[in-house]
Design a protein that fits this description.
Chain lengths: ~425, ~260
């Protein structure tokens, strides 16, 4: 066990985070009992838009649901077998197979039968998202599905035409939702949801920025239980409120040098989703004096960033209340805001990911990078070999390991620990 | 007094004992790993002790490495396989900057600096098709004595194309080549070329830096060494005892870690 170097304690708001997450899954499952509406879609979907249907609209986002299944190894294995038996290959997105498996087994990982949505509302940026809800709809007997094509290129190439392409689809989607649900759309609710989403995602970036401190107030394993709120309900007031509480607490930890990991000596980051069933690898690293202070994934999937005057990354400034007055403005705001999401950028070029990783290494005082060849997510894994080369050329120690975010059969914990040991030897944290 | 390094691989446990305070090899021992790794460790240890005429109490510090490191509960410390390889190869061949280790079930490589310290590493994919176990399987398939596998390869006239991405599929390809009337020598060379290609691909991900040393069991296979040299288009240094390089590196690290801190 490595030497204890810092004072450390758990988060005071930890139980609040757990409760918020469980309430989310319960509210979705029980929505119909209370006369509400259920929709399902990717965590990347423009979730602020269905909020205009009413305050009793609850969502189930697919990726965090798939990750929750992955954490339950037995149920995940059942889901994978069910999906494979239906003819879906095991090299497809592991979250997607967990989701389809749940439909096929008619089981909700949080208990009870599979809660079918009233409609699917999703977006296409990664190749799997394009098929996920089409197949889900078929398996569920034809659930109405609307998807927005979000593949419009990286943020630095965004122009009015591309933005209009997105906004036009959103406008069409609102009309579609009105027809499917029979409800009249409320623009005020949309506008509030857009403010909420911009504030929540900016707050999360602010929280991640606080992790530049040494010792780090948060570690990556803990961050997984916190960033997830942004994948579930980034447009909801509960998310803004929770991230405000969390931001204040993390700020307090920085001021008082309270470490997430008492043994912090070396700081690493990862790049993408972890093997969810094996988060114990983070505890293993801690025993060797090494803390993962986050990842491009935890920072950039939910956090929305901007380059500050001093050239460093900081939370993007959200629009002030009262500046959005129409549906068109709300849609344009959320479309433009979302296109700046870091985790979307490297779908278009691995160099963009390398540059973001290099920035994090420099600004967050990171000693090394661990890249996950995630067989469960081709979208976020493609280009890792180039990322590795780019980081090496910059003189940054880097290792890669093979695994799968959602299918434990493709992760070898002992082999990975051996690789981690070797990497830590290079960092000097033997 | 002495220090020791032990490398517990998939096929053999290897032990090297060094004179404490000086990098002088006193003895070495090796035992085949069966189901009971601890038994192999004991046998290798006892061999090495007998060779140096020492008792266990004379060995003051032991560093273990290898896939079976758990089978050495009495070790004082551990080191990664690549770290041990780098240190051992550099000690024997100081010009070495890249060490390739192809053992029974794993291929790996490390880069080291001018002091023998590992600075980067790479591991093969999760498949033994590029390692010694693959050669053993192919020797059985071709009904050729394992000792003859390397020399026969050097007598080949050509190397028919072969994918050999997997032991199962490679065996199927071998059967096809036999039915096509290809000679065993040529098939063996093709097999060596295929696994060399896999390992060269791994090393290129690391970046090739001269001089290169090849260690581990396959370094004793002249056919494989020849394939690696042709594939890399450069010479490769082979230590006299390539199987013991990891254990030697671990022993050198044991000597370093057991030394009293400077006052």
């Amino acid at each position: 066990m490595a030497e204890v170097r810092w004072k450390s304690k758990g988060l005071d708001c930890w139980d609040q985070a757990k409760q918020l997450r469980m309430d989310y899954y319960k509210n979705y499952a029980q929505a119909h009992e209370k006369g509400g509406i259920r929709w399902a879609g990717s965590a990347w979907a423009f979730s602020a838009i269905p909020a205009g249907l009413g305050e009793d609209v609850w969502s189930l986002t697919g990726e965090p649901y798939g990750a929750s299944v992955a954490w339950n190894k037995d149920f995940a294995a059942q889901c994978h077998e069910a999906a494979q038996a239906k003819g879906y290959a095991r090299d497809l997105c592991a979250y997607m197979r967990n989701y389809w498996g749940s439909i096929l087994l008619n089981k909700y990982v949080f208990g009870g039968e599979w809660p079918e949505p009233d409609f699917n509302w999703t977006s296409h940026t990664c190749c799997s998202h394009a098929k996920w809800y089409q197949v889900a709809s078929e398996l569920e007997g034809g659930i109405p599905t609307f998807a927005i094509d979000g593949s419009i290129g990286p943020y630095d190439e965004l122009d009015e035409n591309r933005l209009t392409y997105l906004v036009d689809q959103m406008q069409e989607g609102i009309e579609w939702m009105e027809k499917v649900t029979g409800r009249k759309y409320n623009d005020e609710l949309l506008i509030q949801a857009v403010y909420n989403e911009c504030r929540a995602t900016s707050l999360w970036a602010e929280i991640c920025t606080l992790n530049k401190a040494v010792p780090a107030p948060l570690d990556e394993k803990t961050m997984y239980s916190l960033y997830v709120m942004g994948t579930l309900m980034k447009h909801r007031k509960e998310c803004v409120d929770f991230y405000t509480v969390l931001r204040d607490e993390v700020q307090d930890r920085v001021s008082n040098q309270i470490a997430a990991v008492a043994t912090e000596r070396f700081r690493v980051i990862t790049d993408t989703q972890p093997p969810w069933a094996f988060l114990s690898i983070f505890r293993y690293m801690e025993s060797k004096g090494t803390v993962s202070i986050g990842s491009l994934y935890t920072f950039g999937l939910i956090g929305i960033w901007e380059v500050k005057e001093d050239g460093t990354w900081g939370p993007r400034t959200p629009p002030e209340e009262g500046t959005i007055t129409t549906r068109e403005e709300a849609l344009r705001t959320i479309a433009e805001w979302t296109c700046s999401r870091p985790e979307w950028q490297h779908f278009y070029s691995p160099e963009l990911k390398t540059e973001m990783l290099k920035r994090i290494v420099k600004e967050w005082k990171v000693d090394g990078v661990m890249l996950h060849y995630n067989r469960g997510c081709e979208g976020l894994t493609v280009g890792i070999a180039e990322n590795k080369l780019g980081l090496k050329e910059a003189g940054i120690p880097v290792m890669s390991f093979e695994g799968n975010m959602g299918d434990e059969r493709e992760f070898d914990p002992e082999r990975t620990k051996t690789e981690i040991d070797t990497f830590l030897e290079i960092l000097g944290a033997r | 007094m002495a220090v020791a390094g032990i490398d517990v691989g998939a096929k053999y446990a290897k032990m090297v004992i060094l004179k404490d305070g000086q990098p002088e090899i006193l003895s070495q021992g090796m035992a085949e790993c069966g189901f009971d790794l601890k038994e192999a460790v004991e046998e290798a240890f006892n061999q090495a002790l007998a060779g140096a005429n020492l008792s266990r109490d004379d060995v003051t510090y032991i560093v273990a490495t290898g896939a079976g490191v758990e089978a050495v509960p009495f070790a004082n410390d551990t080191v990664s396989m690549q770290g041990a390889d780098a240190r051992g190869a550099h000690f024997l061949l100081p010009s070495v900057r890249t060490v390739i280790d192809i053992g029974a079930e794993m291929g790996r490589a490390a880069k080291c600096d001018e002091t023998g310290r590992m600075v980067d590493f790479v591991l093969n994919e999760r498949c033994a098709a590029g390692a010694g176990a693959f050669i053993e399987a192919m020797a059985r398939a071709l009904e050729v004595d394992l000792e003859q596998f390397g020399p026969l390869s050097l007598e080949a006239e050509k190397s028919p194309p072969m994918n050999a991405q997997c032991t199962i599929f490679a065996e199927s390809e071998v059967v096809t080549l036999i039915h096509e009337g290809e000679s065993k020598k040529n098939i063996i060379r093709a097999l060596h070329d295929a696994i060399a290609e896999r390992n060269i691909s791994m090393v290129r991900r690391l970046g090739v830096e001269k001089d290169i040393a090849l260690v581990g069991g396959l370094a004793k296979n002249v056919g494989f060494v020849d394939a690696m040299k042709r594939g890399l288009e450069m010479d490769i240094l082979i230590p006299e005892e390539p199987l013991f390089v990891g254990a030697l590196g671990a022993a050198l690290i044991a000597a370093e870690r057991s030394a009293p801190a400077p006052q």
